[in-house]
Write a structure and sequence with these properties.
The chain is built from 2 helices and 9 strands; from the N terminus they run E-E-H-E-E-E-E-E-E-H-E. It has 134 residues and is α+β, with helices and mostly antiparallel strands. It has one domain (2-126).
Length: 134
Amino acid sequence: MKLEAENSPVVVGVNQAQIIKTLKKLKSYGPSSFACITDDEGNYVQVAGGRFTCFIERYDAKSKKLFRGYHSNSSTNFEDGSLLSFGAGRVPLKKDEWFNIDDVIEVFSLFNQNQSLPATVYWREINILSQSDG
């Protein structure tokens, strides 16, 4: 596994303490506002934001599909379409797509251990444009 975070060195063979430390440092407005953990097959889970305003996505390398996480008990009261601003841009989110960092740590930790992701997190496919799309 490889853990990457904005403005941080890449960590290969990451452990639980490194995941927690890296993710707890994330802030929407700060030197580190997004992170990604990738396995050897190219599957990954990524997060943007920090503390109480995060969103998570996972990529399935085999199907080449990207999924956004959502759940029934959002950590915020934002309406659909509210923007999360972070170092790589601004993303409109649905009200059920907001997570707090403790939820994200759980997802990253289970992914790192090659275990099933939490049943409380659901995944909806999001369309990504390829260079061949017109």
